[in-house]
């Protein structure tokens, strides 16, 4: 662990940057993996996946997360794989025609009956008595007293010179 203030701050900054870079690096890796899978499968959507992967790699290289030559190498490999890809021939097979099934008829909606509401009973207003006020004050005092007792003041660490 660092003892010097500037080194402690530098460690904090590096940690923040590492976490931020991890997101970009992971997104680029995922895009490359998806593009590679689409190319290997011969999907017609592989071009869109390839373009997305190239875009992600360019962004991560521009931010300095990965080296520009690393991004260029990955893009080159992806484009070469795309060029070697044999497009999948789509064979138009006649789809079997199924008879249209009739939808089951819906039941008639239920008739709603009038709801009978119970008469509202007003609660009597009770005026607070002096005894009641005193009891509530005691409860409030007890709650605040327990809070003060449970918290302990923090001690500041001694400065090293």
Topology:
Layout: H1 5-41, H2 46-63, H3 68-84, H4 130-150
Overall description:
Helix 1 (5-41) packs antiparallel against helix 2 (46-63) and helix 1 runs parallel beside helix 3. The protein is flat. The chain is mainly α and 161 residues long. It has a domain at 8-84: Methane Monooxygenase Hydroxylase, Chain G, domain 1, CATH 1.20.58.110. Helix content is 58%, strand content 0%. The protein contains 4 helices and no strands.
Write a concise keyword list for the protein shown above:
single chain; 4 helices; 161 residues
Give a brief rundown of this model.
The chain has 161 residues and is an all-alpha fold. Helix content is 58%, strand content 0%. It has helices at 5-41, 46-63, 68-84, 130-150.
Oligomeric state as shown: single chain
* Biggest β-sheet strands, sense, barrel: none
- Structural class determined from secondary elements: mainly alpha
CATH architecture of the domain at 8-84: Up-down Bundle
Distance N to C terminus: 17 Å
- The tally of strands reads 0
Q: Can you say what the CATH homologous superfamily of the domain at 8-84 is? A: Ribosomal protein S20
């Amino acid at each position: 662990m660092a003892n010097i203030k500037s080194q402690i701050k530098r460690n904090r900054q590096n940690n923040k940057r590492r976490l931020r870079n991890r997101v970009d690096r992971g997104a680029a890796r995922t895009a490359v993996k998806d593009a590679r899978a689409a190319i290997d499968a011969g999907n017609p959507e592989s071009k869109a996946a390839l373009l997305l992967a190239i875009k992600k790699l360019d962004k991560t290289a521009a931010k300095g997360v990965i080296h520009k030559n690393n991004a260029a190498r990955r893009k080159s490999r992806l484009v070469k794989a795309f060029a070697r890809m044999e497009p999948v021939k789509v064979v138009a097979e006649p789809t079997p025609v199924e008879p249209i099934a009739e939808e089951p008829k819906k039941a008639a909606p239920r008739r709603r009956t009038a709801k009978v509401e119970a008469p509202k009973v007003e609660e009597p207003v009770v005026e607070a008595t002096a005894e009641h006020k005193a009891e509530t004050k005691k409860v409030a005092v007890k709650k605040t007293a327990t809070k003060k007792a449970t918290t302990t003041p923090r001690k500041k660490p001694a400065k090293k010179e």
